[in-house]
Design brief:
One of its GO terms (cellular component) is cytosol. Its EC number is 3.6.4.13. It catalyses: ATP + H2O = ADP + phosphate + H(+). By secondary structure, this protein is of the alpha/beta class. It is built from 18 helices and 16 strands. Among the domains are: about 200 residues, 3-Layer(aba) Sandwich (Rossmann fold), CATH 3.40.50.300; about 160 residues, 3-Layer(aba) Sandwich (Rossmann fold). The strands form 3 sheets. The chain has a 7-stranded parallel β-sheet, with helices on both faces. A 7-stranded parallel β-sheet has the order 10-11-9-12-13-8-14, with helices on both faces. The chain is globular and about 85 Å long. It binds adenosine-5'-triphosphate and magnesium ion.
Amino acid sequence: MSTFSEFGLESDVLQAITDLGYEEPTPIQAHAIPVALSGRDMIGQAQTGTGKTAAFGIPLVSKIAASEDRIVTLIMTPTRELAIQVAEEIEKLGRTKGIRSLPIYGGQDIGRQIRGLKRRPQIIIGTPGRLLDHINRKTIRLDDVQTVVLDEADEMLDMGFMEDITSILSLVPEERQTLLFSATMPANIQKLAQQFLKNPEHISMIPKTQTTNKNIQQFYIEVQERMKFDGLCRLLDMEPPELAIIFGRTKRRVAELSEALMKRGYAADGLHGDLSQNQRDAVMRKFRDGSIDVLVATDVAARGLDISGVTHVINFDLPQDPESYVHRIGRTGRAGKEGTSWTFVTPRETDHLHFIEKITRHRISKKPLPTLSEAMEGKQRVIAERIIEAVGNEEDTNAYKWVAAQLLEQYDSVQLLAAAMKLLTGDKKDVAVELTPEDPIRSKKRKFDGRSGGYGGQGRGGYGQRREGGYGGQGRGGYGQRREGGGYNGERRGNYGGGGGQGGGYRKPYREGGQGRREDGGGYRNDRREESRGSRSEDYVNI
Ligand SMILES: Nc1ncnc2c1ncn2[C@@H]1O[C@H](COP(=O)(O)OP(=O)(O)OP(=O)(O)O)[C@@H](O)[C@H]1O
Ligand SMILES: [Mg+2]
């Protein structure tokens, strides 16, 4: 499928796609759209930043009649920011056709959402906790829902939403279509799919050789915990990002790190679950409009967020899970653009890094910590570029010329320019900052079982096409289709692979039972189940 018109979409929807600037479908869109239009249940798996949102968004808006005045589609996402973003894309796809959609998420004034519901949206995009609040208040009824989408379902389970999702789905008629999308497919997703999807078509665009997006150059730096902050500043100076997302392990870490970066003169701010929703919205707005260029975040920003211009992702702290690594670095290198990721690894964490490499099937190149002089050169280069750019703008500089001429009569020209550059760099490297050290990630011994689908599986065809009992292992080259079974590991056997049969792969001990909250050293120590019901949200985990 090389054009959107071949899907037989209505002209309104085609117009919306053109307005979005999409010229041709991405591989996951090419394969998922016809299946979703056919009404079948589906698991859609494709690398980060390859257009999964429109892969479900286009069929959703196509299937709804503009005259419909009931909630017929429900999309669930793990975080508020993602609910907002998905709602924006759905709104753009449905606008020309007159489809009404509404985001429903925690932290926003519920009265405002109730007013929004009075406009009778056909599509609701929400986080599970707030959705349940509305259901309990009877401001949302799910009796007429025909299609449910679970975006980043594994993350919702990791955050402890299994019970909420189960309650919500039990209120949706059995006769429905359920679509599940993610870039990674850990074991608990397979379990969830078994429970809630009926005979799903599994469309996987994950190549056998690499689960991370190929547009991302991946590096790591071995660094002592106490050197991380200076290392980070050197990195930002050496290779100034257009926009960068820096991931820290815990809310406290993110708060301290963003504060420290601001003190040192970087245009940074932090995003984590302890901020009010207004603060979170403000930070996201500043990052999207470029008034800050460094976003420091917990894993609350790891999933799904699509911000164009993110050139760098930096893992200030190594993530606990390989999935988290894949999703975090996937905030760059999106929609065909290039990106770079840097990961800091303390000496005691190198085993865990190699584990991540093994699972993601990609070697992460080691680089030395940038030296002070490399950092200085980078900084000077940027300042020089800014000055040269300003030189090109004669009109802007005219007002300064008279003083410049005076100064040049009194001082050496090189000395003058060097002093001006020094001032422009806003160098604050002597400002003291304090960061509480984090414990190293402990590499976990994973348990493996052959039943759960995890990372194992039978995939052979790389990008090729494979159907159960059908074209096994034939496809090579090009983006093909891979269905049924198999996580994203191709034929892995031995250490991490499943011992034959469907699936296999590792199962994380701390996720046993499929609904465990994160509760180990990875910084997810809060016990959200202890908290009162009513305003459940991602705030209950430490992100
Ligand atoms: N057909 C297309 N042509 C060009 N750009 C597209 C197309 N489809 C989607 N995009 C753009 O690609 C970017 C990534 O899309 P999206 O956020 O849906 O990715 P994703 O696969 O859901 O990623 P993640 O796994 O991180 O959630 C967005 O900016 C989107 O506008
Ligand atoms: Mg997505």
